[in-house]
Amino acid sequence: MEFKDKVVWITGASSGIGEGLVYAFAEMGCKLVISARREHELLRVKEQTKLSDENILVLPIDLEHYTLATSWVNMVVAKFGQIDILINNGGVSQKGLAMETDLSVEKKIMDINYFGNVALSKAVIPIMQNQKSGKIVITTSILGKFGLPLHSTYAASKHALYGFYDSLRMELKTDNIKILIVSPGFINTQASVNALKEDGKRLEKNSPAQINGMKTNVFAQKLISAIKSDKKHVYIGNKELLSVPFKLLFPNLFYKIMVKLNKGK
Question: Which element (helix H / strand E) includes 136?
């Protein structure tokens, strides 16, 4: 797949994985749409790309307000006339016991991670259907394959993305719209810092796993390789990815180990 002059829309582009992807696609001559809640951070990222205003659109969005998705899409089409790749990467993490997490916080996580993600894809798909081509890339997590203590709703939202997009992929086959589900392991981002606690406040504390995780520029190159090779699903990370087959093969032992590792956290 040639990327030059393709219109690539990246959500969660103000930091972390999204920011790393912005720089990688900019280097390949893409036209970019960069979205997140914090406009000042998006402007910082735009400045780093060195792209002209003609080739980049800063579009602040809040996925929690997903009913606005169609208007966001209309702004992109008004600027570039097409959308070739949507990288649906925006989301929020969690750190809190399930029984102590307020339902309003659970709803917020689901609204951002699941409903916001799905609503944006469904708003973009008609554009891709008219083009008779397109690719949607979804950032989920290895926690879409199993749960962990303190991450119940986050894991639920990522599990839900697997079910939706596995089904959607088959429905869109005749439209030449392709779906790639990406499952990161531990990536060096601020996701833990921004995680929501039981009361909805930010955790404001990073985890050793994130700090020691894969660099975002390395992640970006691996993801681009997966897009080029037309994969349907890819895991990207380090040795933590072994937890997925380990859970499948040794479920009882897996849960004993995970409970022990997370005790007291």
Answer: strand 134-139
From the list 129, 49, 33, 153, the residue with the least C-alpha distance to 89 is 33
Task: State pTM to two decimals.
Answer: 0.95
How high is the pLDDT of residue 261?
A: 79
Spot the catalytic one: 23, 66, 114, 154: 154
Q: Is 235 a catalytic residue?
A: no
Residue 143, SS3 per DSSP: helix
pLDDT for the residue 265: 59
Match domain 7-240 to its CATH number in 3.40.50.720, 3.40.50.300, 3.40.1190.10, 3.40.50.150: 3.40.50.720
176: left (phi over 0), alpha (psi -120 to 50) or beta: left
What average pLDDT does the segment 43-61 reach? 97
Q: 225-243 burial by CB neighbour count: b if 16+ within 10 A, else e?
A: ebbeeeeebbbbbeeebeb
